Amino acid sequence: MERAILLMTNSVRSPATAKSYFRYMTHFKDFCNYSDFDVMADKGRQDPKAFQIQVEDFVMDLKARLNPNSVPTCVYPIFSFCEANDIFLNSKKIKKMFPAFVKKSGREAYTTEQIASMARVATEYKNIALVYFLASTGVRIGALPSLTIGDLHEIKNCYAVTVYADTIEEYVTFLNPEAKQALDSYFAYRQAKGEIFSKNTPVFRAKFRVKSQKVEKTTESALSTLILKLTRKAGLRNPMFKKDGRFLIQQAHGFRKRFITILKSNPSIPIAYAERMAGHKMYSDDSGNRITLDESYLRPKLEKLFSFYEMAIPELTIDQTNRLQLENELQQQKIIENETLRKRVSELEAKYSQLELEKKQQEQAQVQTEVARLELEKQSANDREAKESKLHKDKQLQRLDERSEEHTSELQSLRHLVCRLLLEKK
Questions:
Q1: For 70-222, where are the E strands, in sequence order?
Q2: What is the phi/psi pair of residue 173, to 5°?
Q3: From CA 20, how far away is CA 224, in angstroms rounded?
Q4: 315: which residues sit within 8 A by CB, 6+ positions away?
Q5: Taking the CA of residue 202 as centre, how many other CA atoms within 13 Å lie in the half-sphere pointing to its CB?
Q6: Which residue blocks in 164-266 are alpha helix, DSSP H?
């Protein structure tokens, strides 16, 4: 690869962005008939005015062919190329040539029936697994090539999928039962043909060749081509349905839009958890405010995250038979749960009645004890009062006796006095 393009790709942090920039720069190189990127860089440094005109012509050509919203995407790589190779370019003038943005098309999501039609026309294990995988997890198609067997972890009858493992973009989503079954069938087919699996084995490998020992991971463009073929075969890519040069449903992103819509439309799933399973780091609330998900605090356990995902499994399920079976299982589970709850309520009511009875009996015993205590206190008070009354009476009688004795003594003294006086008188 030429040094000029290497300087540009190395100035871009994301490998995916670097790959995209390389593709757009190739279009520009071919448009200007340059033999290679080094020649282009030399020309730009030697004659910047001529290079400026070529970029302007390229922008005008893009405006004539592409959706207005796509033009800047194709031109920004040229700005990056010029910065990396010390080429002067009047980027401000170029930006003024950009067309006005128009209302975006391609915002619609695939319906369940549309995805089911893709699954019906898919004849290979890989294609079937791919359709169900995208519908069940909502991952970006660009994340699939880097997925390995080590990124899958079984949980109940599903798979937990670690996307962008060991990067700052890492997050976890899930594969529902029907998608897990399709993926397991794809794995079984590969193993039956002699492929040996390890934790580093790609989930989706490049075109499978029987008896081939070399296993290579697939590419985003290869997977996008598979989806394109399936949509055309299912009759979902009719040019008559285009608006402003674009389809109402994006080819691969339509799966993701459906996934996010289903999760965020479920009132039982908190928006923050739905966004987490979609790999979003921020979202807009009902008032339009941008809210950032703080990974330092919102780090739910896998089981808790899966409990919310389970609530969306019925709607995420594609096959009608699987959906009806799942709904029947959920209905039976709900009946069992209701019956268990009813029994539990009955047990609690009986226990409550027993506790109430015991409490009432205990209260009655306490009342009786209190009455007996009060009766005893009353009797004690009466006895004490009677005793005090008797003592009082005894004291009164004693005082009367003492006074009587005093009176008797006084009378005796008076008699003696009278007798003595009478004797003296004689």
A1: 152-155, 158-163, 171-175
A2: -130, -170
A3: 14
A4: 112, 262, 266
A5: 16
A6: 177-192, 220-233, 253-265
Cα-based distances in Å from 88 to 41, 45, 91: 11, 7, 9
Question: 63: exposed, middle or buried (C-beta count within 10 Å: 0-12, 13-18, 19+)?
Answer: middle
- The answer to whether the beta carbons of residues 18 and 9 sit under 8 Å apart is yes
Type of residue found at 125: Y
- In the structure encoding, which two tokens stand for residue 331, read together? 């209905």
Mean pLDDT in each 10-residue stretch from start to end of the chain (426 residues)? Answer: 92 85 94 95 95 96 89 95 95 94 75 95 95 96 94 95 91 95 95 91 82 78 94 85 74 94 94 90 65 62 93 91 73 82 89 89 90 89 85 84 83 85 80
Look up residue 336 and give its amino acid. Answer: I
Q: Compute the distance between CA of residue 319 and CA of residue 182 in angstroms, rounded to an integer.
A: 11
Token representation of residue 291: 């809210």
Instruction: Give the separation between CA 146 and CA 322, rounded to whole angstroms.
Output: 29
Alpha-carbon span 249 to 237, nearest angstrom: 9
